[in-house]
């Protein structure tokens, strides 16, 4: 469990709980991540450009799937072995 600057338990992951880090290019076509580690329960997604994302075993992101604004980190509960896909979206 992570602690804040006052030593109080915080509902946030600390660095020791990170299983992997991935970078997925945001393009005009849907691009998939690598499969998540089997033990992955949550992912943090932060994009440097507006995009749409989709989760699943073989996802395809489209302009009408969940939109993520630029520089706005989000946390999602996921199933290990699944992936996310990303595509540009204005």
Question: Explain this structure to me?
Answer:
The chain has 90 residues and is mostly beta strands. The chain has one domain. Helices cover 0% and strands 31% of the residues. It is built from no helices and 8 strands. The protein has strands at residues 2-3, 9-10, 31-32, 42-45, 51-56, 67-68, 74-77, 83-88. The strands form 3 sheets. A 4-stranded antiparallel sheet has the order 3-8-5-6, with no helix packed on it. The protein has a two-stranded antiparallel ribbon with strand order 1-2. The protein is globular. The relative contact order is 0.29. The mean pLDDT is 89.
Question: What's the layout of helices and strands?
Answer:
Blueprint (H helix, E strand, L loop, with lengths): L1 E2 L5 E2 L20 E2 L9 E4 L5 E6 L10 E2 L5 E4 L5 E6 L2
Antiparallel strand pairs: 1-2, 3-8, 4-7, 5-6, 5-8
Shape descriptor reads globular
Distance between termini?
A: 36 Å
- Secondary structure tally: strands: 8
State the helix count: 0
Query: How much strand content do the residues show?
Result: 25-35%
| Residues in helix, % | under 10%
Domain module tally:
1
What is the H/E order? EEEEEEEE
**Overall radius of gyration:** 14 Å
Poorly predicted runs: none
Overall pLDDT score: 89
Q: Specify the biggest β-sheet.
A: 4 strands, antiparallel
Strand order of the largest sheet: 3-8-5-6
Structural class of the secondary structure composition?
mainly beta
């Amino acid at each position: 469990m992570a602690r804040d600057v006052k030593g109080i338990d915080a509902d946030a992951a600390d660095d020791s709980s990170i299983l992997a880090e991935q970078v997925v290019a945001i393009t005009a076509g849907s691009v998939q991540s690598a499969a998540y580690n089997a033990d992955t329960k949550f992912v943090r997604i932060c994009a440097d450009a507006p995009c749409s994302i989709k989760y699943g075993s073989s996802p395809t992101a489209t302009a009408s799937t969940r939109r993520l604004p630029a520089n706005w980190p989000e946390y999602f509960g996921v199933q290990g072995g699944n992936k996310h896909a990303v595509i540009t979206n204005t």
